[in-house]
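WP5 quarterly update. Target: DUF4235 domain-containing protein. Source organism: Nocardioides mangrovi. Length: 98 aa.
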Amino acid sequence: MASGGSKVWTVFSLVSALGAAMFAKKAIDKSWTVATGKKPPENPADPDVEVWEAVAWATVSGTAVALARMLAQRRAADYYRRSTGHLPPDLQKDDQVA
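Structure tokens (predicted):
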């Protein structure tokens, strides 16, 4: 069963990752529109979307969202460590378990 700290970390990590993903999605949508003059494809799997556009969108949006989530979770873990004096339970190495 998860401890209280583990539950707090799970919620904190999830909220930070979701917030970062939403922010990244908005930023990449805007950047795509500025760069291409078109709205991003709503569904890259749609056969009416050109292949180059679908591949470019999937690459750019996937990378941006993944990076934003990773950076947000790293910041959340750092904040957790500063607040509690140790890393979140999921990030502790076996020799660091409190």
